[in-house]
């Protein structure tokens, strides 16, 4: 193997349990997003545009869809002779194997993979964030600071700060303190879970952390605090721009809706920073004479006869005449019959919604009882379902099998 | 390996589409919102299980090479067989026919291991599986099988096509090449199936007798001597040989039945991937009866149009009955009717352009209006 200056490790093993039905059959990084992509496309495309050509993707939870999606890495130009993308599931060693116990342990278990390339730096990334970022600028800053570790940070709204790891820096950007999810944050500089480390130093810390029986083997909880205690030179790299951790059904839905304003913060149409993905072979979408389409993203292979408003439509979707889709995310190959109304819903891949159904309607009982529906009123229908004719599904329901209806 | 190989003959198409084919030839003319003409025949071959495709080229083939590259998008970037670009021999004068191009690439034919070959062209918009006519070819024990469709002669101009005369068992007794008044409604698809060795023999033989054109000298002149059969393809076929037919067959895709037949029902039509985001329909977009490819951002009014990848229609712009190729931009308040814009045309604020459906106005690549 040739020596590489910097290689990237993408943490993609999380279940994303708060996404519920969306991650029933696939890992969070593989969840479809934005009418075309899977969440991991953003990170992989960023790597491609940042000239990082050697990447390990750490998978663990339901890896089938993710593994076959990444394949040889060709869609992101990562099918390289030297380097490229390697999927790294947990494996068995001489003394038995074990699952990845935490983010740091996942890297620890793959030290041999990293050592093959003898890199100066290792970039640790997360496979479940939506953003566009040039990692090469962060790496430059890391080098010019002669830092041991650089953590990418972003200013978050104060009211959300307690959900994140919060950094305290001095005037030169050196990190002086770190609080993991503080109850009363004194600062709103949140860690994005993106780190550059000097590999030889990180290796020492990973080895030491592995010996610590009390550690949960996590970067945010263990490695970063230990490095700070060890007075390593750690800097914050300030990122500004759109960044979203789509951890819950609401934030997933919101991040999709964020794309629909006329000039969204996340520009998907920048020819110099395309988001690459596995492209389905589908014709341009067809909007029929009876259709109405506003404020929406619609992908190829769709046939639209009805009305689509403020929605994200993935490839191969059919919307029958007289149907109306509002504030919704419709995943690939969903078929919607005639005179169906779908409001504020997420319909997963391949589901069939037969004619005259009503998805996400305001149930009068809610108003009487005064209790709010779950998921802030977002209705979720699992993949591959066949919703019979005349079905009514109240707002906020999560439908995984037909007995719920 | 399969028993059928494909050859796409691109050496016969001249400057059919005026401005549109000035700097490219028909194979690389954009079609249907995201395709190039060659995608149809090439995808048909791949979907029929063909793994070895040779592409005969001549003249301005830079844009075609750029489109095809390794053949990866069609699954043809393989170690065994795959995609082969077959260049013409160096020759200074005027070329008379396509046979010498075939002959110059005999080495490729010799090395190919398939027993049968299908020869077709890039100017056809259709979705066909060649295994059916191949079966017919074997069963009828023909020397050459010519694919054709039954057409309604009143609807379209077939004066650039070849018309077949068949007897009841399907044998072709006569052919009219480019007749003004066709005598039958059986129109050739310029697609032929035969044994590879037979192809090489007949080319050798014809060249030795001073012939130079495959259709005229190998097929038409030998109709009485050889067993030439016709196979009727049931399905939609668009033959692109003029601006009018280009416009008409693009617009035909706005019929959902044809859209489904061409793109969805049989195998998919593959093309070069551009990684464009989904189509963005903004707040004020009004879109009716249109085919819109990824990467487009629509803020104005679009009716009966085909928009290729990356087209931008700004607020208050109105376009109707038009075809806009890649990365065109129509600014605020501009209006277009029955216009074909080649790639990267910019129509600035308030401009008005119109042609007629019979004679759509063509605007050349990279023009600023």
Automatic annotation (TrEMBL), chain A:
- Look up keyword Translocase and say if it applies: no
Which portions of this protein are annotated as coiled-coil regions? none
Q: Where is this site: Could play a key role in the communication between the regulatory and the substrate sites?
A: 60, 99
Keywords for this entry?
ATP-binding, Carbohydrate metabolism, Glycogen biosynthesis, Glycogen metabolism, Nucleotide-binding, Nucleotidyltransferase, Transferase
Its pathway is: Glycan biosynthesis; glycogen biosynthesis
Q: Where is the Glucose-1-phosphate adenylyltransferase/Bifunctional protein GlmU-like C-terminal hexapeptide domain?
A: 291-365
EC number(s) on file: 2.7.7.27
The Gene Ontology biological process terms listed for this entry are:
glycogen biosynthetic process
Q: Which residues bind alpha-D-glucose 1-phosphate?
A: 100, 165, 180-181, 191
Tell me where the transmembrane regions lie. Answer: none
Any idea where the Nucleotidyl transferase domain is?
A: 8-260
The molecular function GO annotations come to:
ATP binding; glucose-1-phosphate adenylyltransferase activity
Per its record, the protein catalyses: alpha-D-glucose 1-phosphate + ATP + H(+) = ADP-alpha-D-glucose + diphosphate
Q: Which family does it belong to?
A: Belongs to the bacterial/plant glucose-1-phosphate adenylyltransferase family.
Complex and partners: Homotetramer.
The record ties this protein, via PANTHER family, to: GLUCOSE-1-PHOSPHATE ADENYLYLTRANSFERASE, GLUCOSE-1-PHOSPHATE ADENYLYLTRANSFERASE-RELATED
The record's function comment reads: Involved in the biosynthesis of ADP-glucose, a building block required for the elongation reactions to produce glycogen. Catalyzes the reaction between ATP and alpha-D-glucose 1-phosphate (G1P) to produce pyrophosphate and ADP-Glc.
Entries under NCBIfam families matching the protein: glgC, PRK05293.1
Q: What is this protein called?
A: Glucose-1-phosphate adenylyltransferase
The species this protein was found in: Thermotalea metallivorans
UniProtKB/TrEMBL annotation, chain B:
- Pfam families, per database record: Hexapep_GlmU, NTP_transferase
Is Signal a UniProt keyword of this protein? no
Q: Output the GO biological process annotations, alphabetical, semicolon-separated.
A: glycogen biosynthetic process
- GO MF, any single term: glucose-1-phosphate adenylyltransferase activity
List the keywords (alphabetical): Glycogen biosynthesis
- Indicate the segments forming the Glucose-1-phosphate adenylyltransferase/Bifunctional protein GlmU-like C-terminal hexapeptide domain, all copies: 283-352
Task: Specify the Nucleotidyl transferase domain's residue ranges.
Answer: 14-239
Q: Does the keyword Metal-binding apply?
A: no
InterPro entries named among the record's database cross-references: ADP-Glc_PPase, GlgDAde_trans, GlmU/GlgC-like_hexapep, NTP_transferase_dom, Nucleotide-diphossugar_trans, Trimer_LpxA-like_sf
Q: Which family does it belong to?
A: Belongs to the bacterial/plant glucose-1-phosphate adenylyltransferase family.
Q: Which PANTHER family match?
A: GLUCOSE-1-PHOSPHATE ADENYLYLTRANSFERASE-RELATED (PTHR43523), GLYCOGEN BIOSYNTHESIS PROTEIN GLGD (PTHR43523:SF6)
This chain's protein is named Glycogen biosynthesis protein GlgD
Q: Which organism is it from?
A: Thermotalea metallivorans
């Amino acid at each position: 193997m040739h020596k590489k200056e910097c290689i990237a490790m993408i943490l993609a093993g999380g279940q994303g349990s708060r996404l519920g039905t969306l991650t029933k059959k696939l890992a969070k990084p593989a969840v479809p997003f934005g009418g075309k992509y899977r969440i991991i496309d953003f990170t992989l495309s960023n790597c491609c545009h940042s000239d990082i050509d050697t990447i390990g993707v750490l998978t663990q939870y339901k890896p089938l869809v993710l593994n076959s999606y990444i394949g040889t890495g060709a869609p992101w130009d990562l099918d390289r002779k030297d380097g490229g993308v390697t999927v790294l599931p947990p494996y068995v060693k001489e003394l038995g194997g074990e699952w990845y116990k935490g983010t740091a342990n996942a890297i620890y278990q793959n030290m041999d993979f990293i050592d093959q390339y003898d890199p100066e730096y290792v970039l640790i990334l997360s496979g479940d964030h939506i953003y566009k970022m040039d990692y090469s600028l962060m790496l430059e800053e890391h080098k010019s600071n002669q830092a041991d570790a650089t953590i990418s940070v972003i200013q978050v709204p104060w009211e959300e700060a307690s959900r994140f790891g919060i950094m305290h820096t001095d005037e030169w950007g050196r990190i002086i303190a770190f609080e993991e999810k503080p109850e009363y944050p004194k600062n709103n500089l949140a860690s994005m879970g993106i780190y550059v480390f000097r590999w030889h130093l990180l290796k020492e810390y990973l080895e030491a952390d592995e010996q610590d029986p009390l550690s949960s083997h996590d970067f945010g909880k263990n490695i970063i605090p230990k490095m700070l205690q060890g007075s390593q030179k750690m800097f914050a790299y300030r990122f500004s721009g759109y960044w979203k951790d789509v951890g819950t059904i609401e934030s997933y839905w919101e991040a999709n809706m964020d794309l629909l304003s006329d000039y969204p913060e996340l520009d998907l149409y920048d020819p110099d920073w395309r988001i690459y993905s596995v492209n389905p072979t589908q014709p341009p979408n067809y909007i029929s004479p009876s259709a109405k389409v506003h404020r929406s993203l619609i992908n190829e292979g769709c046939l639209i006869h009805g009305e689509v408003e403020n929605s994200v439509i993935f490839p191969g979707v059919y919307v029958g005449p007289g149907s109306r889709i509002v504030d919704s995310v419709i995943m690939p190959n969903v078929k919607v019959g005639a005179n169906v109304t779908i409001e504020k819903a997420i319909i997963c891949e391949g589901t069939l919604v037969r004619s005259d159904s009503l998805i996400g309607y305001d149930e009068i009982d809610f108003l009487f009882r005064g209790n709010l529906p779950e998921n802030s009123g977002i209705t979720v229908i699992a993949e591959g379902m066949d919703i019979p004719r005349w079905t009514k599904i109240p707002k906020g329901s999560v439908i995984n099998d037909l007995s719920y209806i | 390996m399969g028993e059928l190989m494909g050859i796409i003959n691109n050496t016969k198409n001249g400057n059919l589409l005026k401005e549109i084919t000035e700097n490219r030839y028909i194979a690389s003319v954009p079609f249907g919102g995201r395709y190039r003409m060659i995608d149809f025949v090439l995808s048909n071959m791949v979907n029929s299980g063909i793994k070895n495709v040779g592409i005969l080229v001549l003249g301005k083939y830079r844009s075609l090479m750029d489109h095809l590259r390794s053949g990866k998008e069609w699954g043809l970037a393989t170690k065994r067989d795959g995609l082969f670009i077959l260049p013409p021999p160096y020759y200074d004068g005027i070329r008379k026919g396509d046979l010498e191009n075939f002959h110059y690439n005999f080495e490729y034919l010799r090395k190919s291991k398939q027993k049968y070959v299908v020869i077709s062209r890039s100017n056809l918009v259709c979705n066909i599986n060649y295994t059916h006519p191949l079966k017919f070819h074997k069963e009828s024990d023909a020397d050459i099988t010519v694919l054709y469709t039954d057409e309604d002669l009143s609807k379209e101009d077939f004066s650039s096509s070849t018309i077949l005369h068949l007897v009841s068992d399907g044998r072709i007794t006569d052919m009219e090449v480019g007749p003004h008044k066709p005598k039958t409604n059986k129109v050739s698809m310029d697609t032929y199936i035969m044994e590879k060795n037979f192809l090489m023999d007949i080319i050798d033989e014809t060249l030795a007798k001073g012939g130079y054109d495959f259709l005229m000298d190998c097929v038409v002149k030998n109709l009485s001597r050889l067993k030439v059969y016709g196979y009727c393809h049931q399905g939609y076929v668009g033959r692109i040989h003029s601006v009018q037919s280009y416009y008409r067959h693009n617009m035909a895709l706005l019929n959902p039945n044809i859209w489904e037949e061409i793109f969805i029902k049989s195998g998919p039509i593959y093309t070069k991937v551009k990684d464009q985001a989904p189509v963005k329909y903004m707040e004020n977009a009004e879109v009716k009866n249109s085919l819109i490819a990824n990467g487009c951002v629509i803020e104005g009014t679009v009716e009966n149009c085909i928009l290729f990848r990356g087209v931008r229609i700004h607020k208050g712009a109105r376009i109707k009955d038009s075809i806009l190729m890649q990365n065109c931009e129509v600014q605020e308040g501009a209006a277009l009717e029955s216009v074909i814009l080649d790639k990267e045309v910019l129509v600035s604020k308030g401009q008005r352009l119109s042609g007629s459906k019979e004679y759509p106005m063509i605007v050349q690549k990279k023009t600023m209006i």
